[in-house]
Automatic annotation (TrEMBL):
UniProt-recorded name of the protein: GntR family transcriptional regulator
Entry keyword annotation includes Membrane: no
Taxonomic placement: Bacteria, Bacillati, Actinomycetota, Actinomycetes, Micrococcales
Organism domain of life: Bacteria
Stored InterPro entries: GntR_C, TF_FadR/GntR_C, Tscrpt_reg_HTH_GntR, WH-like_DNA-bd_sf, WH_DNA-bd_sf
């Protein structure tokens, strides 16, 4: 049995969901007073919730402008994808070096399970979460604790990434591309994942 969420967690969860669904657009202001009235909590609680979202890079705190939803501009996209490549491509290199071209079923199971749930997803918000789990599963195949930990810290930012790439995909094409990727990282190694990330970067920055 999970403990009930705290007021800070509840507010953070609600606002996070609105950001990740696109209901709150990039650069939209997050106002403490309005949120406190809406959720029936103190401004101190709201401030702590907003700080969590800033730590997750879903929001930014700007001098004289307050807290706003993070913008996902070209520089942000490129920087995130470079970090993902540093972690994910290296993780696949380690996994392939360790496991060869045919990874054991036990290693593949989390990624396959994520693909099955992605195929069954009824909405994009769920698909965003499962897509992140798929990429976490690829990284976990490396067995490298520090890389796994660093990749997990991307968390919400990875969900935000898929929100912005969403217009370029249907759920069906997203599943198909990632099924192909799971085969390719075993057969071709880290370059298959590098190309996957570069492709999605090009979609978002228009190159």
């Amino acid at each position: 049995m999970h403990p009930a969420p705290t007021a800070v967690e509840r507010v953070a969860d609600e606002v996070r969901a609105e950001i990740l669904s696109g209901e709150l657009a990039a650069d939209a202001p997050l106002r403490e007073e309005a949120a406190a009235a809406r959720y029936g909590v103190s401004r101190h609680t709201v401030r702590a919730a907003f700080q969590r979202l800033v730590a997750e890079r879903l929001a930014v705190a700007l001098p004289y402008r307050g807290v706003r939803v993070a913008s996902f501009d070209r520089d942000t996209i490129v920087a995130l994808q470079q970090l993902r490549a540093a972690l994910e491509v290296e993780a696949v290199r380690i996994a392939r070096e360790r496991l060869g071209q045919e990874w054991p079923d036990a290693v593949l199971a989390p990624a396959r399970d994520a693909l099955d749930r992605l195929a069954a997803s009824a909405d994009w918000l769920e698909a965003e979460r499962v897509h992140a789990e798929f990429h976490h599963a690829l990284v976990a195949a490396s067995g490298s604790p520090r890389i796994i930990e660093a990749h997990a810290a991307l968390g919400s930012e990875l969900l935000l990434f898929l929100l912005h790439v969403r217009p370029h995909y249907t759920l069906e094409s997203l599943v198909a591309e990632h099924r192909e990727l799971l085969d390719a990282v075993q057969a071709e190694g880290p370059e298959a994942l590098r190309e996957h990330l570069e492709h999605s970067t090009r979609l978002l920055v228009g190159e």
